[in-house]
Amino acid sequence: MVATPIGNLADISERAIEALNTVDAILCEDTRVTAKLLLSRNIATPTRTLHDHNEQDRTPFLIEKLQDGARYAVVSDAGTPLVSDPGYRLVRAAIAAGIHVTAIPGPNAVVTALTLSGLPPLPFMFLGFPAPRSEARKTGFATLRAAEQAGLHSTLIWYEAPHRLIETLEDLIDVFGPDREAAVGRELTKRFEEMVRGTLTEVLEHFRTTAPRGEITLLIGPSAEDDSGAADLDTHLREALTTHSVKDAAALVAGIVKLPKRTVYARALELSRALKD
């Protein structure tokens, strides 16, 4: 598993160059993208595609070749393989078959953005890409907000496509509030690298006036130490339960605290039982 540059081709390591030169073939998402890197280092190793659409079908063949002594390097279009990129199925199958798997570490957009963001580095949670549709995206965000109210305290990180960034920031504001600390890394390590920091509202306003382009890494800081979300939820539910059924109280409060109805219903059921006792 060979990490490749996330933008600046000079970031490739000597070990990565040696591995790419000495394996039997390089498995890559897009041979055209990887070709640019190989050309810059005069690497003539053959390339083969390994992407989300063919990995499952190709894995048995590759495992058979590996068992016969073949050596492959797996790369993504940019950064570290498997991190929101193909390779997981192949690695799992290789481990199960007793085949040696190793990694040559290197660039990763998540860690690079985290180090530049000014947000608390530990703990952090990388969540891949948010759902492409707003309703599903908000549900995912609301689940994380519920986890925060149950004690999660972490910097949260996503990748995002530039054409969806503004809508995603709007959804984050709806769920986490306008004042949550945030940062957006754009074109990291490249000529036009940009790191926008501020509240979610401030970051949103920046990209409303400056259209986002390129590779995007989106971060929000952890909830405040004095976050009273859990207490607020219980307060609202206790008040609603005095005049409403559990189902109706949960539906009412879910709209107030912006959490999934099933999460609020489960808590309402617990409080209802406790109040009866």
TrEMBL record:
Where's it found, cell-wise? Answer: Cytoplasm
Q: Which CDD domains match?
A: RsmI
EC numbers? 2.1.1.198
> What GO terms fall under cellular component here?
cytoplasm
Question: Keywords of this protein's UniProt record, alphabetized?
Answer: Cytoplasm, Methyltransferase, rRNA processing, S-adenosyl-L-methionine, Transferase
What Pfam families is this protein classified in?
RsmI_C, TP_methylase
SUPFAM superfamilies xref list: Tetrapyrrole methylase
Ranges for domain RsmI HTH come to 229-271
The enzyme's first-digit EC class, named in words, is transferase
The Tetrapyrrole methylase domain sits at 2-203
Q: Which InterPro entries match?
A: 4pyrrol_Mease (IPR000878), 4pyrrol_Methylase_sf (IPR035996), 4pyrrole_Mease_sub1 (IPR014777), 4pyrrole_Mease_sub2 (IPR014776), rRNA_ssu_MeTfrase_I (IPR008189), RsmI_HTH (IPR053910), SAM_MeTrfase_RsmI_CS (IPR018063)
Q: Does the keyword Methyltransferase apply?
A: yes
- What PROSITE patterns does the record tag this protein with? RSMI
Does the record carry S-adenosyl-L-methionine as a key word? Answer: yes
Molecular function (Gene Ontology), one example:
rRNA (cytosine-2'-O-)-methyltransferase activity
Top-level taxon of the source organism: Bacteria
Catalysed reactions listed for this entry = cytidine(1402) in 16S rRNA + S-adenosyl-L-methionine = 2'-O-methylcytidine(1402) in 16S rRNA + S-adenosyl-L-homocysteine + H(+)
| Protein role | Catalyzes the 2'-O-methylation of the ribose of cytidine 1402 (C1402) in 16S rRNA.
Membership in a protein family: Belongs to the methyltransferase superfamily. RsmI family.
Q: Report the protein name in the record.
A: Ribosomal RNA small subunit methyltransferase I
